[in-house]
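Q: Could you fold this chain for me?
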Amino acid sequence: MPSVPSVPLNNGVTIPQLGFGTFQIPPDETCETTVAALEAGYRHIDTAQMYGNEKEVGQAVRESGLDRADVFVTSKLDNGAHAPDEALRAFDRSLEKLGFDYLDLFLIHWPLPGGPGDYVETWKTLEEIYRSGRAKAIGVSNFQENHLRRLLDSSTVVPAVNQIEVHPYLTQEPLRAFGVEHDIAMEAWSPIAQGKVLSDPTITRIAERVGRTPAQVVLRWHLQRGDIVFPKSVTLKRIQDNIAVFDFELSEGDIGEIAALNRDERTGPDPDTFNG
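A: Sure. Below is the predicted structure, expressed as structure tokens.
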């Protein structure tokens, strides 16, 4: 079984660097696929309130037979729950659906600039949850540098992570550098750009040379640059392939060639304008 390295967060909590994403997995498929991921060696599961499958993620952890403490589980606040009282109730609902008494990591899903609520006020509620011990770490998702600066200027707890869209066509180097400066770990969602990068000639050439699939090459690129990544699949073979990336390395030249593919091209919404 693969041994996945862990990354220390800024509060001392450690997170497995590679996990299993559950975005767009229907609830009736979530338990089975998540159990398969846990059996394949994953110990980090990423879900969210808006995914609608928290209950099934919790069920999978229990059905796996693993101790709760051995599985790192993240969830995220729904966009309609930014008001402080509602954020607290939404967190309670997540714990109830999951069947847990704590979360390893809880995130604000989107900053929603100009939208309902104010993410700085929402963050204060997450700080309250963190101080209660019911979330071992707290962070944000889809925050740009301007959002992070405002948050850091207005709060006492530095986000442990910023979960953002990252892939070879959107390398996010400036935002990554800001995170390094402030000890905010970078998590990469859409790590293969919804499959768009898998047919890129640079990636297919490297994959052929190292004898791996294009997806494995891209995931290895993420890992070697320090990203925390959680690919999603409902196919058992791909679930297994996606974690079989710790027995080879890319050269510095490979890393540079892949990074040079950056186009600042998103597959998802722009956090500066998206309001849910």
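A (continued): The radius of gyration is 18 Å.
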